[in-house]
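Reopening closed ticket. The problem is back. First fold of the pair:
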Amino acid sequence: MRHSTMELPPSIEKWTKEDVCKWLITVVKVHETYADKFCEEEVSGDSLVVFEKKDILDMGINHGPAVKIQFYLESLKEGSQHESQFPPYVKNWTKEQVNQWLLQHVRVYSKYAERLQEEDVSGDCLVCFKKQDFLDLDLKSGPAVKILAELRQLYKKPEPTLQPILHTNTDQKESPKPTQPEMGLAQAIAIKQPDSDYKTESKADKMVQKESEKAQLPFQKVSEKEGIQQPKPQDLGARRKVAIVTTDIPKIPVEIKNILAELLKHDLKEFHFHLQEYTESKHKPISKSSLEGKDTMDTTRLMTDHYGSKEALQVTRDILKEINQRELARQLEKNMGPLEQKSLSKDILKKEANQGDKLKNLLTCGGNSLDNYDHFIVVVNKSSPEQVQYLQFLSKLKPFCVLDFDPNSVAPGGLCHSYRESRVANLHTPSQYQGQTDSVIKTLNLYKQTSWVFCNGRHGLDGESNKELDYRNWLRKSCKDVEELVSFICNPDVLLSEGSLIIFLLLSPVHTEKDPVFDIYKSFIKQTKEESIITICDSQGMYEKWRELVQEKCDSDIDQRSIYELTLSEVNGTVMALGPFNQSSERLLPSSGSSFVVLKQKDEDLLTALDILCLNQCENTIDENSSEFHDHRIRVEKEFYKGGKVKWWNFYFCDKDKEKPFVKRDKYENVKKMIKSQLRDSKDMCALLNLFHHPGCGGTTLAMHVMWDLRQEFRCAVLKDNTLPKKEVAIQVSTLMKLESEKPFPILLLVDDSKETENPHKLVNCIRKAVEDDLNMNMDESPNCKVIILNCVRSHSPKEQYKQHNTGPSQYITASLTQEEQKEFEKKLKELQETHEKPENFYSFMIMKSNFDEKYIKDLARNTLEKFDYSSKKARLFAFLALLNTHVAESEISLSLCRDVLGMKMIHWRKDSVMGRMEPYSNFLIMDTVEDLGGYKGIRILHHSIASACLEELERSYSLRVSDITMEMLHCDLFFSVGVVKHRFMLSIQQMLIERQRKKDGDEREPFSPLIGKIHEDQGRKTVQEIFVKASSRFVTSASIPQALARYLYIKERDFPEALQWAEKAKNIKRNPYTFDTIGQIHKSNLKSNSHREKQESSRNPEDLNTNIQIANNAITAFKRAQELANEKDEPETEAADDESEDRKSYNVNGYVGVLEIAFLVFEILSRLPFFEESDPMKKRYLQSFLKKTIPITSVHKEDNEINNRYVEIIKEHEQFLQSLKTEVKDIFELLVFYFTNIKANTSKLDFRSIVSVLFKKYVALFCTTSEEIKKERQCNHLDLEIDIEERRLFLEEKDADTFAGVLQHLDNPEIESITESYAFLQQQQFINQKQKTKETINYILSNIVLYLLKQKSKHVKSHSYLSALLLKTLQEVGLQYPFPDPYYLALLLLWPSPGQENTEIVTYVRAIRKSKRLILSFRNRSTIAHLYLGKEEGLKRLVSKRQLDENFEGMRRENLAQLWRNGDLFKNKAIINRLYRVSGTTEQGEVFANYGKVKIPVRPAFIASIRSGASTEKVSFYLGFAINGPLAYDIQYEN
């Protein structure tokens, strides 16, 4: 327990009474009412210092807070920083939880526990107690010593589980006895609750118990003396329930029969179907056979005999609502008389007597675990700090989003503030949910972290949008945004209604319908099923008003879905007691010196990309002696050996039972040694190890097994989200490395199912940079500063790929077992036979045991697919799965989509319903949880080889080809309608059609996907084209499908005209570098084909030349446009690139290279013309001269014949195009030389470089063989001034100061004075060229700034006001469309506002910088450096150069100084802090703003890691640097 004095005077005696109050609230953290007491009693510091506990108690303060205050006061007087000897969680206990611990774990006398609760002894008070404090509360020495001893023992034990206490509500004594109103049937029929060991009493229970206790008082006195055992409270409840007996009413069966008679035949059939599935009763459902052929009378008799009359009534009503016969349900209620309603009202007392079970059922669908729902959405209104302490259960729910109507929620004591102490929540406004669905999900980090949405203002932030509004203004200004937010949440593209539960948590009353919370309730019931909404109210009175509103305005009875009799403490305890218990209470990570640290839940929430494996994974989650643990083990093992993904549990079970170890593949030891040697011997900060494996041969399982066994030597994690940017993953890995540790700890990261080895290389580079930026050390200082990436690469030829892979350590594993491995699998089968029924049906395991025997797999497929009927829905669905699982790795069809395909329209699903419907194929199927989109359940075939064998069997025995199944999938409308999981499924279908695999003998790819390749081989062009045409009609917004068809037509069929049509269609869908490049590639291929054919032909046809020049012109146009688009912005790599050999990862220069290739094809074609033949030197010179524009085509010497004359006509027609090629080629060569020299190389650039090198040799051979041209002399009479001007410009060029960037380089060069003088001279001259004048004026202003920073007293330096005026004049001349950022950069330097100023123009200049177009590759997505920084002075003095900052570190080694800049530690230096000005700002929607009054100036973070993901709106401060692409924020600090 560390105490801080905040910002209080150092001596207590000097504290004012306000200081005392502040200390109590901020340091001691007592309630404000207690602090106010001290203030009222005028207790200042000199009084406080002599206070004792008795003095505090005399002020009316309860014993618990008094002990805490006295404890803190003593520590303060002693100047000690007392370390608590108790676990941190104890301090977070409420007084109720202290009471629970004392009774359930210490087992003290209940009156002692009650005494402590009465005196407000919460956990933070309890840890301050000494023995005397207990004695002062009338506890005896024995219990006092025992309590203190038990407290000290807590560190050695797991955190105790606390169950809510059954107690008599004292409020009941004071409230008047409630009268029972007459209830309608709708109110009376309550949800039927199963019996449970754990029960929470309602107020009705307490009343009954109270009366019973009075009757038993004499007996109690005797029993206390003689030790007679008392009946348990739940026995009492059971007795009371038995005593409540109601009689069946003869009228009920008649009413049921009459209502059922109203149903049509197919409605009655649907009623029967739901009746046989009804599970809301303690009775088993009526069997299907009993209902066959039954009419309404027989059905009524069956129901009343089976359930009893009254419950039959409830069942009838429930099913009528389920099948949407709500009018009949209402009629049934209306027709019942007062007698029936009264008798049923007694049942509500019985059924609502245990709302704890009801709450549990509502949250778990009748189970014990919260994982029955994928997502929770919480709507909450205003709360008080007293309520917030009982709302920790929200942390357990981890809501998808919280719609909060309390503007103070984020302040201390608020619900949002409390939640964020233990978990991550990003703070949003409703308007942030507007836009493209995918974009919103990505920007707001939905599914990964809770989104906390402030729906009626947020205090603590300025601006109109953050103010709390009354209902009238909220309705007009905010309601629409919140309704659109509700619409977004309920969109099936975001959340499936069946997997989501909406919780209205009402903590303050909703008095009238004119309340934003009620409006949002109405919005939800418009968008989703009412069954998906439950209500939890803080009090029964509050609930009654809410129920009336809903009943009156929405015509809906919410009793069955509402909790209102439990206290918030009881709600909290009930939810916290629910599963899943899939994590240890304290998850541990290894740390330096064989120690370990606790992984906090909040830290884990932030690491969204990583699934972290802890030291104590799976420990202390389920009682290992319980049947629940045994069942869990059987279930997990069965799922894995059947074909499910391996879980950490599988290794844990084998570790617990050493007699039955996990089967190790032979390569296990090799992979383990490879990892350990990298840790021990490698100097590399981040190493990439590849494990190549066949699909389904256990590669991933092997990698996870190794990771499990190395979890003490590494902090281990699996990359679970491959879609995140590599930089963000790298930052999270770096964070994990140093989490809770002073020294870094090595990381082992598993990257699973990667199809590329290049992508992890990018990740390696990002991790290296992130670790270097984040940790101020090098490898010599810390050998543990290492990240090892184990990259599992799925491959169809792992051994070959292993042999070719020479960039780092690697291993491979194939679908072939050694003799030793086969023995291990035989042994494991015998073990499984001891514990599992029919392990022979664990097909994935049996396939490996059979050593991947093809005959075994084919026999399985043949036997299972016997009598396969493709016309049935289940057979079609199975065929779809077989096709998909064969051709797309990690593919599945979602459970909800399978239900739709099978036509299952039930509301209450059973998990095995789909599997039941899929018999006899379900033995081949398994259900997985898919992590994407927040997690959903999907179905797939157990093993890749089974899926493949099934496809072969369908073709062999049933003549069902893959093309037939593909067309059937594309024909199914259901797959292409809206839905959150259908999007992923559609992507899988698209991937199946277009994704190409690597060739076995190299890095190149196959020309087409395996599916298209097979269909082409088997059936040819017609079928392939039909499939692509159908797919194109389905994927109307995807350019990839028509693009792939275009590639197929020009590569396989050489049908260039039709290929061009499809390429044009792709371009019209999406105009990006890829689609234009495809068009260029088709023309290039066509031109090559023509050129090759013409070489073989002996006769000449001039019209061929005309055609070829037109093709070349079209190709160059396409390539130029592709290049323009590539230069404009970096396209996201979502579409397949088009190239004959390889996907091109970068389009930076692809268009330029395409233009070069076409130009040289044209040169080659021209060089074969009779009068340009390359073999004849004279004719070759004619070609050179013509292309250099020195002679027209008419001046070229040639024979006068019809063919040559036609050639001349054609060339003359295209003369402008042909003569532009040489200049264009020269410009591109210069540009590419600049590109290759200045931009860091990657693989694609190296490939391009070799192509360009070959073409440049051709250029030299064609154009550089003529004699040197004679230099022309220039006449110089009377041109002294012009010569002077020219000399100055030559001087600037010589000093590399004729450009803006060149001047900026002279920040530490004394020659800047001469440079400034030269620019001053040029400023005095008359300019004819306005562009040159503007450029030189801009450079002149910058040279003055640089000179001032280097030599303030130089006579050539102009004042700040003069330079500002000159700049403003220049800005007026150039406007906001100047192609270079230079003038706007100067505006940042000279016109940036001072504190208190509001210069709105500066925002305009920042935007102008961002829009400025560069001659070559833009800075838009590149890191830039700030040369100048914002200081605390005024005028030019406030500009501080990087050199001036570096001077504070004289004597430091250069690489160490560079490290300070990289990790941002430089800004923690005192001299830097004193020199630079810290700017206040905000982060909004992922962007940073500098705030000057009401002006928000956009700035960029200098380091990506400094901004939290999730687009949360927060207050920040930072230092400002000025870079050429705009202001940069350094050392960003969050206020909270």
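Second fold of the pair, where the issue appears:
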Amino acid sequence: MSDEKPPQLVDYFVVAGLTDTSRPLEEENQQHRPARPSEPITDVAVIIRSQGEEVPHGFTCIETTTSGHPVDLNAGLLNNPQMFICYKRGRDKPPLIELGVHYEGKDRPKPGYKILDTTPYSRSANLNSGGPGHQRTFLTYRRAAEPHGHNTLGVTDICLVMPSKGESTPHTFCRVDKNLNTSMWGPALFLCYKIAMAKANTLVYEAGLLGRYPEQDSESFPLPESVPVFCLPMGATIESWPADTKYPLPVFSTFVLTGASGDKVYGAAIQFHEAFPRERLSEKQSLRLGLLSVVDRRPVAGRSLQTRKSICVLSHWPFFDVFRKFLMFIYRYSISGPHVLPLETHISHFMHNVPFPSPQRPRILVQMSPYDNLLLCRPVSSPLPLSGASFLTLLQNLGPDNAVALLVAVLTEQKLLIHSLRPDVLTSVGEALVAMIFPLRWQCPYIPLCPLALADVLCAPVPFIVGIHSSYFDLYEPPRDVIFVDLDTNTIFQSEERKLLSPRSLPRRPCKVLLASLHSLSQQLDEMYSGPGEEASLELLLSDAEAARGRRAQLELEARAAFLRFMACALRGYRSFLRPIALAPAPAGRDAGSLFALQGFLKSRERAYHRFYGQLLRTQLFTQFIEDCSFASDRDPCLEFFDTCVDKVQAELEKPEDTPLMELDDPRGGEHTVFITPPEQPAGPDGAELPARYRYDGFPTLRPELLEPPRDPLVAQLCQARSSAPSSPAPRRTKQEMKVAQRVAQKYSSVPDMWAKCLLGHCYGLWFLYLPTHVRAAPAKLRALQLAYEVLRKMEAHKVVLPDEVCYRILMQLCGQYGEPVLSVRVLLEMKRAGIVPNTITYGYYNKAVLESKWPAGTQSGRLRWAKLRNVVLGAAQFRQPLRQRERRAAAAAAAAPPGGRAPPAPRPGLQRQTTWAGRSLRDPPAAPRLVKSGSLSFPGGTHGEGGRGGPGEPPTTRPPPLPAAPDPLPPRLRGPPGSADGSLSDVSFATDESDRADEGPVGAGGPAGGTPRRGLAAKLQQLLSPGKRPPLRPAASAELPAGSRDAADAACPRRGSEQRDGEPPPRRSPAETLLRPRERPESTASESSVSLGSELDLSDASVGSAGVPKSSEPPADGVAGQEPPAVEVLLSSCSRCQGCSALVYDEEVMAGWTSDDSNLNTTCPFCGRSFVPFLSIEIQDFQLPPSTAEDGSLPPPTAQGPVLSDRRRCLALDEAEPELCNGCPDAAVPRRSERVAFAYLSPLVLRKELESLVENEGGEFLAQPELVDSHPIIYWNLVWYFQRLGLPSNLPRLLLGSQHVAPAPQAQPPDSPCVRVRLLWDVLAPEPDSFPPLYVLWRLHSNVPTRLRSWRPHGHPFSLAFLEAVLSHVGLSEVHKAIALFLETVAAPGGPRNLQRSIYREILFLTLAALGRDHMDIAAFDKKYKSAYNKLAGSLGKEELRRRRAQPPSSKAIDCRKSFGATLEC
């Protein structure tokens, strides 16, 4: 489990201001800049000199342009009235904050503006008074509202420019884009004005640290020393104001600090003024502030002294609105009072007791006082990196065209200087500039709010993005090679040395779509904010703030998606030019040229855009992007999301796609809100309230003794959010992969065959999630990894629908962890062979595994020689195997001869109609090594040629031999039976011939196999089911098995340590009984009722993980006898009863009823259509001996226990002697303890989601601990079911030994001796008390075959032996419709069962399986015949009637699920 702490909302609280060590910032460096105006402009006027008007007193007349050309507003007219513009400075009234030009009759008057229609001498101030035909033009202005502060922004300068003379708008000036000279004569003339903060008598110093909390640095994030200068970017000032000047409102600002590792820390600060004592000033400072007269040094009256301070919070989360409210509350608290609680209590309360919002508690309502509260909402869930960007602020301040121009500047790494008089806007726009180029990441200096103390960065010879206050230009000369972006005037200034690429150099269609989207968003913003921003925002806040916030969030998402679409179109197809590392990496392996085909990517673009792409490929942006794509990093989820966007976009379209690239996933709509109360006020000794004694003249110095309140432990639990386990980063799917998997599941849920493969893919995904735990416990890591690789190959061969790339990714990560780079390369090649292009996460893990692992030696000569020698030895052994096989057959025939000396009859030559389920004759030799295509997957085991385990006639395998000293980590059931050299499991249960048994056992054990062929009665029913000639229903002479063969079959049992059975011949039977009773089976079967999986894997075998009990057909391992009972046997069944109609719904029908929702536990009943939760029924049988018996050493004789289901040889021998089934033995061992439990049966989609959550919270190591069984039983039993179902190795069954379901093992037993056997059942574990037994159970009862369950009601049902024989006869004669009609007639007769739990299809299918055996039963052919019979009966009875009586066949989706997963082994 991860020990990481939950996210903390606030890291530090800082107070910054003027300290004793602060140094002045305004030095002699400003001689090149003119002196700043000390007073703002308060009035403008128009005078007509031709009418004798003079400049009014206190006004300044503008007589020339910026370059010295004379300005006359009516130049060129015949009756030139000689009009000029004048302005006046002062502080007697609020300053002007905006100027404009009004065309009468064309423009509507703007609210808040005043039209200057007369001169000071009461004449018309029409700027175009040349005649009645000219456009009447007037100046307009807007004045700041009352009351105004000392530092209110206002117009500080006015000028006129004449473009025809080569003049342009001066830097930091606003230009009114309306010509003052509207006549056809004379040059165009434009009005420009500058807005600034007119300051006088101000001293600027570098800000210092006045206080902080906590006082000690955090280990993970120490407080940066530069925080104070960011809190006051323009410095800590000392200002002299007139005595009656009002305090200005606090100014809110934000900034971003970037660490060495690229982590961002967000700061939110407010700046305010407070009184400063005169005693601390020197005489020189007093003179500069105007507090002393210059001549006699006498104090000047009527002046007040102020200083600027700042309070700030630092956090890793950009909750700027929340921090602004908190800081404003703290500031108001400091200037009001008195208070009962000190200021420090509220600061520490907010930092310690306000939790970070979690998915379970997305809303935190903080009540700071009876009148102040704030709502803290969880950040919007987005695959993009977290940032404080505001694209709407970018559009509002720059417009669409300038935004695209800045996109070109950022992509080509230019020097950008953003400036504004509003410090909070700088951070939002700067964050938007670095966010618009996603997935590229800005690598150069980035300071969205740069203090004056760090302004030297503007002279750096590298690209940068720097934001600065516009008053910087009043102090310093700006650099010449920088592109200036003025957010206040919506202008971009370019120098001659640094010209930007034109937006036309961008790809045309994507750029056209981007511009159209931005123009549409800008128009919507104008509609939202029709008036001035501040007033409109207040109006929206008062009217419908929640709706306005939601609308703004949606527009913000659309703006970001527009830039994302452009980047996806610009970089489309880039993944095909990545170069994977396929050989031992060279020293320059991380170079972008070796990781990416730069020239190939450039040639794939259109020639018209090569200039743009050429500059882009040379940037540090693109180089770092290629490294991030090539190696695993923390940006992998973001890059994987970008890859999905690349797949969605269509670059040739000239409009956005219908499918949005991003969706608004705002968790603020959650209903669960955590309420945080204000700090409790202490009470007096007698319970009375304490007096208010905390009052502050200014912001106080923080007192440490008041900053240590106890932290509420409950709050820490509220914000607890565990992160992914550090040992398992690869198994974790990204949110984007989960969404894609969900869409794929929804798409395939309506396609039957694809739905089954989709479920199968999720099942394999479950096993690969468990794979790190399995490999960690395996003694031979390489063999376990090779097994997983072979599983991937078979999955690809059988077209399994993989929902994501987690399977490949996990294996690549394990290859890197255990030093197998070659195998990682093979996994990548297999991935590409399957047509899967690895995404960024998978590609990063691959390159990491290849780059960091130790490669084998470059010379392979020694290994090749050993491989040649091995092939020669194996080839010679292959040539000798036929001779050995012939000798063993002869010895087996001699050992099986009767005492009289007569040899058993020779096998009858000719063709045999019996075939195994694998489609091969029972007498065929074992197939050559190959990949067998079957209904499900077959899995390879280890190499068998070296150990002598391979059967005769096997060619050597082509796989490289594993290390000889390494033990085999795979269970014997996955190594394949003797004769399966290729590791395929297609022949595990059914392809065993005589030579296999002759190879494995003594000579006496091979008599039946090498002698008489089995042409029993079950074979005749197989002939009846075939479309060929139907033989008469009479016994054949050759159907009886000779007694000698039965004796020889019985002789095989002592070889396995079991009790030898008597060889008495069975009693003579009637012809009908001989025909229909399940007396004989072909030698390849394991159980007459056994229904193998599509992978043909014997799932009745013990599943004991990597150290399980071997199959009884193999030599005993580790000293365990072949017939030793397991310590624990587990029976599992997924057959569930519908709560609506009481019908039994079987496994494939449950799978077909699942939905694609990964949170829905329900399935749909195929009979009544209702939803219900299916269950896994589990029966745990504990066979472990009591401790007293184990200590005495007296073990029960092995004869007390009959054959287990996987003991194929004994089952065959018992079948020859008695009509018994392997899963029903009269002498079966009685468990010492038995327990039945039931848990929800989960869909693979639901189970995978739960397993990922468990691994994320508890870590992958938890899957190897016995606590998993008791603490998460639903996940545990479902995993056991699916892994056993697909035959995948795991150690999960062994965890049962340490759970509460099993008694502790005796101490006398070795620790590895207990084993667990898992058996999967098709039917229910326990019958209903009032239900009638199914037909297959009645068949066994009539045949005196012991059944697993003895609680069925033996009497009171209408299903006689004659009825069963008639049903089987109709099925054998391909007259399934008659069998269905007979069943319906019998059920409808008086005394029939009132309710049928099983459908008629299920009853007939199970009965046929019980009579024939799995190997002589083709379920697919039976399904076709049953469906044809159903359609035939539907014409006479009607489909609705047949459905009501549960005679319908299973749906096509259920049939496909059974084909993909296979049928469970036992009934």
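Update: turned out to be a display glitch only; the data is intact. Residues 635 and 1025 are 61 Å apart (CA to CA). The two ends are 41 Å apart (CA to CA). Please close again.
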